[in-house]
Amino acid sequence: MRRLFLPDISSKAYIRVLRTALKAQLFQLNNNDNMSTLEVKRLTFSYKKTRGAVFRDFNMELSPGHIYGLLGANGTGKSTMLYLMSGLLTPQSGLVTYNGTDVRKRLPGTMREIFIVPDEFELPNVTLKHYIETNRMFYPRFSEEDMNTYLDVFNTHTDAKLSELSLGQRKKIFMSFAMATHTRVLLMDEPTNGLDILSKEQFRTFLTKGRNEESIFVVATHQVKDIEAVLDRIIMIDGTRIIAETDADSIRKDGKIDLEQYYKDTLKSKENNHEQ
Question: What is the DSSP string of 138-170?
Answer without folding.
Answer: G-TT--HHHHHHHHHHTT--TT-BGGGS-HHHH
